[in-house]
Amino acid sequence: MASNILLVEDDASIGEMIESYLTMEGFDVVHAKDGAEALERFEERPYDVVLLDLMLPKLGGMDFLKKIREKSHVPVLIVSAKDGEVDKALGLGFGADDYITKPFSMIELTARVKAAIRRATAYVGTQQAPVNQIVKVHELTLDLDHLTVTKNGEEIKLTAKKLQILKLFMTNPKKVFTKQHIFTSVWNDDYFGDENVINVHMSRLREKIEDRPSEPQYIKTLWGIGYRLGEF
């Protein structure tokens, strides 16, 4: 069965090129040319991956991303001409899973799409947790059955990747994790030294769970080594 891809790209020539190539590779591609249309197409059927340009008419790429993240953990791959670290961090901070900057090769894009689907499939497999598995660390409680996190009884909303990172630490309280270990464990893919992905996700996770993100207590940094769960 072909994987379903929602392509959100307002440039007709680029959109047609991507749609044609991915269709030839066996994917079922729906092409939306602006953010508003993309939101309509997203409501119509489930997708395995969303390819999202940032600069869109009617509804911007980031606004579209925020809206779908309210209801879905579908992998989102940002495809953008913007090349600044701030733009990349912003996209990841709003829940994107990966990014690729224009111009790019279709071979690389296809590889990233397949990797996103593979990671998402692996994540779904981790959801089959035994009933009533509860992990507590100080004020944080992780429910492995329902995949929810609460702090002092109040639920903390986390994206799929941030939840998996937190689960990694809370279920391995004595272990030190390098960035490579975190990436291969959570993204289920080879690590090529792109620290930006880990840095952004760790920063956003700390903003969610820490009282003072600049002085983290739950996830400690071991400079030059990696991270570990804090001791209370």
Describe this structure in words.
The protein is of the alpha/beta class and 232 residues long. It has 8 helices and 12 strands. The protein has helices spanning 12-24, 35-44, 61-69, 85-93, 106-126, 160-170, 179-186, 195-209, and strands spanning 4-8, 28-32, 49-52, 76-80, 98-101, 134-137, 140-143, 148-151, 154-156, 176-177, 219-222, 226-229. Strands 2-1-3-4-5 form a 5-stranded parallel β-sheet, sandwiched between helices. It has a 4-stranded antiparallel β-sheet with strand order 6-7-8-9, covered by helices on one side. A 3-stranded antiparallel β-sheet has the order 10-12-11. Helix 2 packs parallel to helix 3 (61-69). The chain starts with a strand and ends with a strand. Mean pLDDT is 83; it is low at 125-132.
Classify the beta-strand content into a percent band.
15-25%
Provide the CATH architecture of the largest domain. 3-Layer(aba) Sandwich
Structural class by SSE content: alpha/beta
User: Would you count the extended β strands for me?
Assistant: 12
- Write the element-wise H/E pattern from the N-terminal end onward: EHEHEHEHEHEEEEHEHHEE
Instruction: Please indicate the count of domains.
Output: 2
Order of strands across the main sheet:
2-1-3-4-5
Mean pLDDT over all positions: 83
Largest sheet: 5 strands, parallel
Low-confidence stretches: 125-132
CATH topology name of the largest domain, in short, is: Rossmann fold
Terminal residue distance:
49 Å
CATH superfamily descriptor of the largest domain: Response regulator
Shape: elongated
- The number of helical segments is 8
Rg over C-alpha atoms, rounded to the nearest angstrom: 18 Å
The level of helicity is: 40-55%
CATH class type of the largest domain: Alpha Beta
Quaternary assembly: single chain
